[in-house]
Specification:
Distance between the termini: 55 Å
Number of helices: 8
Order of helices and strands: HHHHHHHH
Structural class: mainly alpha
Radius of gyration: 19 Å
Number of domains: 1
Shape: globular
Strand content: under 5%
Helix content: 55-70%
Amino acid sequence: MMWLTERAPSGLRDVLLRRIAVGWLDRRPEEAEPWLLENLDDELLRDRMLLPLTSFRLGQHRHEDAIAFAEQVPDENERNYALTTVLVQWSQFDEAAVETYIVEAKVADSIVARMRTKLDGPIRTKRRKVKSAPEDEG
């Protein structure tokens, strides 16, 4: 991963860094998580690892840890999306803790509104149209 940090800045480099982190956290979390946490002092890595770490902690239901990472995401749109996602899942486990966090952290009204919309909205599923199987000419 470190060799990528030496490459010229580009959107592709950033996407690759994140994808490597996501894959590594998925396949070898006991190896990946400590390494990523140890390297958060590197600004380039930190800014690209915060979302994968947020998702990883969220997947483990470590909601307060996930929120702590999401709050640090430098891009406002990504940060707002991450915060909303964590709050939605966390509220399904501990609604009182989420409400307390919203008040204490002074979460933006727009994020709270998106969270409530997602919680109150219908569950959406993706459906694909299946083509009919070819007739058996047998």
